[in-house]
Amino acid sequence: MNKTLRKAVIAGNWKMNKTPSEAKELLTQIAPLVKDAQCEVVACVPYVDLAVAVEACKGTNIKIGAENAHWEEKGAFTGEISTGMLKEAGVEYVVLGHSERRQYFGETDETVNKRTKAVLKAGLKAIVCVGELLWERECGITEEVVARQIKLDLFDVSAEELKNVIIAYEPVWAIGTGKTATAYQAEEVCSFIRAVLAKLYGKEAADGVTIQYGGSMNDANAAELLSKEDVDGGLIGGASLVAEKFAAIVAAANA
Ligand code: PGA
User: Fold this and answer.
1) CB of 113 closer than 6 A to ligand 1?
2) 9-254 domain in CATH 3.30.230.20?
3) Which of the following is catalytic: 67, 100, 136, 170?
């Protein structure tokens, strides 16, 4: 992390876990444990948990995020949620282009781009996820894959809007597998992502972007990952569902 240039952001990605009452319980456990955090603390929760989560986090330093958003303001899009709905619910962050959406729900860079632009236009913060498959890493095309995703997902996003973008580098082979990228591997790709951003937006803008690592980040490996210059935080799945583990990752970001 380079805290002089950018904000560290530790975000939980709850995925399809926790009912509203369970969400309230977990956030009530997390809040006192992270109250002195200097980094930004975010919980991205299922849509039906949003109202309860926002209420439970009132007066705390925990910000609430959603796990996706549609690009249209309203209309015939059964099952989708608009940015206006999220804003009114008190959401501040939205995860976009998570690999599970790309893998299981037909998400493409084109739709990630549309969603990202809508989220930014609404004044919300976008956590845009990129990352290579194991096969792509083995073929030696990690940089090509990630550069392509960054360029397409951020197409037409202005330098001003970039200030509300967080990039989450999540190697797909590390998500939910217990196989964390080494700190060296994480840094290698996160610094590459910053170089791609610098080509698109200039060095100063790129230096200000928070780049998270995600993929089996936990209380045991967070400190080492976060010690790297270009790893500015984490997007945490499994470990964000256990208050003590999530709090320990937040503590590692504060160290
Ligand atoms: P994980 O998930 O921490 O359970 O690997 C990370 C993510 O998918 O954001």
Assistant:
1) no
2) no
3) 170
Please name every residue paired with 95 in a beta bridge, in sequence order, or none if there are none. 127
Supply 168's token pair. Answer: 């989450």
User: What are the tens digits of pLDDT across the range 214-249?
Assistant: 999 999 999 999 999 999 999 999 999 999 999 999
State yes or no: is 204 an active-site residue: no
67 lines ligand 1 (CB under 6 A): no
| Ligand 1 centre distance from Cα of residue 100 (Å) | 10
Strands 62-66 and 93-96: parallel
Task: Dump pLDDT digits (tens) for 199-218.
Answer: 999 999 999 999 999 999 99
pTM over 0.70: yes
The beta strands (E) that lie in the chain are given as 9-13, 40-44, 62-66, 93-96, 125-130, 165-169, 211-214, 233-236
| Amino acid letter, 181 | A
Ligand 1 atom with the smallest distance to the CA of 216 is 5
